[in-house]
Amino acid sequence: MNKDILKVLVSEKEIDEVTTRLAAEIDRDYAGKSEHLVLLGILKGSVPFLADLMKKVKTNPEIELMKVSSYGGGTKTSGSVKIILDWQRDNIAECDIIVIEDIIDSGRTLSYLCEYLRQKGAKSVRTCTLLDKPERRRVPLHVDYFGFTIPDEFVVGYGLDYNEHYRNLPYVG
Ligand code: IMP
Ligand code: MG
Questions:
Q1: Which one, out of 27, 150, 158, 164, has a CA that is 20 to 30 A from the CA of 103?
Q2: What is this structure's pTM?
Q3: ω before 82 within 30° of 0 (cis)?
Q4: Rg (CA), the chain
Q5: Which residues crowd ion ligand 2, with CB under 5 Å?
Q6: Which of ligand 1's atoms lies nearest the C-alpha of 136?
């Protein structure tokens, strides 16, 4: 284990099991029902999760990426969300989008993004997160697919960073 990590919160094995479960839930809901199922990963935190999940989804998903920032580094999440990298399609009205996130904290990032995508005219917008910290929620948010509920502790690994480090760890610590 990395020497900076206090304890493992979600192991590699648990991550493997949860991505299998979430892919099956997505297939159950979309198989034969969607022309364009788009897994929309939010950079950079969702990269390992998206990569593992997309390999297990059988409903022929399409992949897109967006980058957003909530201001402030380190362990703080601040109030406002800004789009750094957007995606563009002529057929957004045919797209069933699942936004793929690493973690939901205040809920501001996902809430803002869902509203943004709906305003752009997406056919449907759902949310999928590996981790959820419900105690920290500041805005109401419906989560369609989620992996683990965790206590209000700062976590790193499997895409999650502290000042850009530790994203490469294969577990959440
Ligand atoms: P929200 O908009 O407050 O829900 O924040 C979501 C974003 O905050 C995530 O995409 C992460 O980038 C970041 N974040 C929240 N909690 C943690 C954490 O414990 N470790 C690392 N990043 C976190
Ligand atoms: Mg992040």
A1: 27
A2: 0.94
A3: no
A4: 16
A5: 45
A6: 3
